[in-house]
């Protein structure tokens, strides 16, 4: 760019910094093709911004295939003038799946680990939620379209537990599920920095983080209305059409 514009590289860097330009950064996105995208957005956002009375709103999902990783060499701690250092080589010691339910109102999380993430494990987690939530409350669960969430055994379970109501996010719209934000914090603060020599150690680290979080929970605050989200997606769709044309 500097050569093309006939200026030095430092001038280009200075201009980029002045205007906050970061051309090296790339963001990914995927537009939902859900026929009921608008209806589902309004449904889920409505639960966040105007939750029903005498009810609990939970955001539920699985963080699957979490790997227990042991570094090939010891991790060197951060020192004055030296960042924390760790080898890119690691040993795998199996995986676990975390099922989690985030209370939208309080920020508290119900969670448990299972070796697999089939419908039968999801049903076990629903039983855990059922025991944890006071019997006089309706339970509204926000979740994605993963196949286990609508498996026959789950439908039968729902028929026997009429106080539970499922609200599905649109396809390719995991950003609508607030528990994904908690998963990101778990990954950054506990999993990515940890060394786990077994799935037992991994599960212990996960539950320790969950317990510490629940000792001082903080709810995420949802700001965007359904209309704002729909308008934003419409602008993105229009931009795609402007760049690539109709297909």
Order of helices and strands: HHHEEEHEHEHHH
Mean pLDDT reading:
87
Read across the widest sheet, the strand sequence of neighbours is: 3-2-1-4-5
Biggest sheet layout: 5 strands, mixed
* Strand-pairing-aware structural class: alpha/beta
Question: What is the radius of gyration computed over CA atoms, rounded to a whole number of angstroms?
Answer: 22 Å
Share of β-strand residues: 15-25%
Number of domains: 1
> For the record, what CATH class applies?
Alpha Beta
What is the assigned CATH homologous superfamily? Ribonuclease H-like superfamily/Ribonuclease H
Helix share, percent: 40-55%
Contiguous low-pLDDT stretches (5 residues minimum) are none
Provide the CATH topology.
Nucleotidyltransferase, domain 5
Question: Which architecture does the CATH hierarchy give at level 2?
Answer: 2-Layer Sandwich
- Helical element count? 8
Span from first to last CA?
32 Å
Which term fits the overall shape? Answer: globular
Strand segment count: 5
């Amino acid at each position: 760019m500097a050569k093309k514009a006939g200026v030095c590289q430092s001038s280009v860097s200075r201009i980029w910094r002045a205007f906050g330009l970061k051309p090296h950064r790339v963001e990914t996105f995927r537009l939902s093709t859900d026929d009921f995208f608008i209806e589902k957005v309004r449904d889920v956002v409505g639960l966040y911004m105007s939750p029903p009375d005498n009810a609990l709103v939970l955001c539920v999902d699985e963080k699957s295939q979490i790997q227990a990783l042991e570094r090939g060499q010891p991790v060197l701690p951060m020192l004055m003038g030296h960042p924390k250092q760790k080898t890119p080589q690691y040993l795998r010691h199996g995986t676990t799946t975390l099922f989690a339910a985030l209370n939208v109102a309080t920020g508290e999380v119900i969670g448990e680990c299972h070796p697999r993430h089939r419908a039968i494990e999801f049903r076990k987690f629903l039983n855990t939620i059922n025991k944890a939530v006071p019997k006089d409350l309706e339970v509204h669960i926000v979740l994605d379209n993963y196949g286990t969430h609508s498996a026959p055994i789950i439908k039968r379970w729902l028929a026997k537990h009429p106080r539970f109501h499922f609200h599905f996010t649109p396809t390719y719209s995991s950003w609508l599920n607030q528990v994904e934000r908690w998963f990101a914090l778990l990954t950054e603060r506990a999993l990515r920095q940890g060394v786990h020599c077994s799935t037992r150690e991994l599960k212990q680290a996960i539950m320790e983080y969950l317990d510490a979080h629940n000792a001082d929970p903080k709810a995420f605050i949802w700001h965007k209305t359904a209309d704002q989200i729909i308008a934003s997606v419409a602008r993105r769709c229009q931009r795609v059409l402007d760049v690539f044309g109709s297909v």
